[in-house]
Design brief:
Elements lengths: L7 E3 H12 L7 E5 L12 E2 L9 E2 L3 E4 L10 E7 L14 E5 L11 E4 L3 E4 L2 E4 L11 E2 L10 E3 L7 H9 L4 E5 L3 E6 L4 E2 L10 E2 L2 H11 L3 E4 L7 H11 L4 E5 L10 H7 L3 E4 L1 E5 L5 E5 L12 E6 L3 H22 L6 E6 L3 E2 L5 E9 L6 E4 L8 H6 L2 E5 L5 E2 L4 E6 L1
Parallel strand pairs: 1-20, 6-7, 14-17, 14-18, 15-16, 18-22, 20-25, 23-26
Antiparallel strand pairs: 2-13, 3-12, 4-11, 5-7, 5-8, 6-10, 9-10, 19-21, 21-22, 23-29, 24-28, 25-26, 25-27, 27-29
The chain binds adenosine monophosphate and magnesium ion.
Length: 418
């Protein structure tokens, strides 16, 4: 029976360790999906403009296509026609002294070099006249063809996570399908004799397995495919079986069984599988017993499988989620092909005084009020790292570094977005 070596790191070193591994993970396989189902996936090909963007000189206003030089005086310009979005002017090059009524998004006719806004002219019969005081430059209210992209230009690079903005751009370039990276397969294993499933009625001394559900949701939100394995009781054989099963995938995430207790077996069993441990604890609160390591690639014999990273997260539900956001999420995003990004830290003003913990980085459930000028963060009152309600009332975590005993209301602090 092995005893895993102990490596306790400070928060920043632990995060740097994860990010170092994140920068070396193997890229997943590539698959093709429809544009619509690419949301949340990571792009695995280059998206290039298939034509100029915009493809024609585009009017950005409702108004009149004119020659700017004709608008310097007060002479009326004769309206010779109209062009709407989706149409093309077919009347030949527009001549001096003329105006063509034009709608937003329509191609500006040849011969015109500016669009005067409908609000800036007076219209009488079939002529317009500049309202005095209004001026017009050549090129005004026109986006020239090719100003946004030329045919063949790279507009999205591999490794880009696909959200609405990127999907819209790919659609504008004619990509009905996209090559994306396959989602890494992540097994979620909750451990503990006290756990029952959500469909079962717990005895007064039992606890429902909420972490299994939280972790699966977190995995999927980060872009992985999450599979919840059966709960492992605190028995070596059960933990062993789950590791043998889970190691066939790319990443294993355990909850519970990583503290110092007699029945905390996860590290021991992983060690039996030849695990390498990068850290076995982090000086943080909550989340101290978090474990990060890797099982080597093994092609034959017991526990055969590919290289597989693992995290052992503490079982207390808030600790589980905090440590997922801090450490699992950045590695998982990299495994999705998105490169090294995150966790997402921002700065905000602390609403009220709060105590620091010398030696420990505190990562506390908090509520960030999104204010345009002064985002403010307030620590949510909680009963400790088992308080799922407090965690759900929060929308972020306040990160308090270990070097201070007290943080005062009005201080600028770091916030971890979730
Ligand atoms: P452990 O890390 O195994 O010592 O567990 C610490 C605490 O977290 C215990 O009070 C457990 O009841 C609780 N806990 C462990 N696993 C889960 C789980 N899957 N869902 C909810 N609570 C859990
Ligand atoms: Mg336990």
């Amino acid at each position: 029976m092995g005893q895993a070596p102990t490596t306790v790191m400070d928060f920043d070193t632990a995060l740097a360790t994860v990010l170092e591994h994140a920068s070396h993970v193997k890229l997943p396989a590539v698959e093709r999906v429809t544009l619509e189902s690419s949301r949340g996936r990571v792009l695995a090909e280059e998206v290039r403009a298939d034509r100029e963007q915009p493809p024609f000189d585009r009017s950005t206003r409702d108004g009149f296509a004119v020659r700017a030089a004709d608008m310097t005086g007060q002479a009326p310009l004769r309206i010779v026609g109209q062009v709407r979005a989706g149409e093309q002017w077919r009347g030949g090059p527009m001549e001096s002294g003329c105006a063509i009524e034009i709608m937003t998004g329509a191609p500006v006719p040849a011969g015109a070099d500016a669009v005067v806004m409908v609000e800036h002219v007076e219209r009488a019969n079939d002529a317009i006249q500049r309202i005095s005081g209004r001026t017009l430059r050549a090129g005004e209210n026109i986006v020239p063809h090719g100003a946004e992209a030329h045919a063949g230009d790279l507009v999205l690079s591999p490794g880009t996570p696909m959200h609405a903005a990127e999907i819209a751009l790919a659609a504008s370039c004619g990509y009905a399908e996209l090559a994306v990276f396959a989602r890494p397969m992540v097994s979620v294993v909750a451990t503990g004799d006290e756990l029952v499933e959500v469909s079962e009625l717990p005895e007064p001394w039992q606890i429902r397995n909420s972490n299994g559900y939280a972790l699966r949701a977190l995995v999927e939100e980060a872009g992985g495919f999450g599979g919840r394995l059966k709960v492992a009781r605190d028995l070596r054989e059960e933990v062993w079986e789950r590791v043998a099963q889970g190691r066939m995938w790319n990443l294993m995430v355990f909850s519970g069984g990583v503290s110092m207790g007699e029945y905390d077996l996860v590290e021991e069993v992983l060690e039996d599988f030849g695990a390498e441990f990068f850290f076995t604890g982090v000086k943080m609160q909550p989340g101290r017993p978090v474990v990060f390591g890797r099982l080597p690639e093994r092609l034959t014999g017991n526990g055969a499988g590919p290289e597989c990273y693992f995290f052992g997260l503490p079982g207390n539900p808030v600790s589980t989620q905090v440590t997922f956001h801090c450490f699992v999420e950045p590695l998982l995003r990299a495994m999705c092909g998105a490169g090294v990004s995150g966790p997402r830290f921002v700065q905000a003003t602390l609403a009220e005084d709060v105590a620091g913990r010398p030696e420990l980085t505190r990562v506390l459930p908090a509520l960030l009020r999104y204010d345009r000028l002064r985002p403010e963060v307030k620590i949510v009152g909680w009963q400790g790292s088992g308080d799922l309600g407090a965690n759900a009332r929060a929308n972020c975590y306040a990160v308090l570094p270990p070097d201070r005993e007290r943080f005062a209301g009005g201080d600028i602090i770091t916030v971890l977005l979730r």
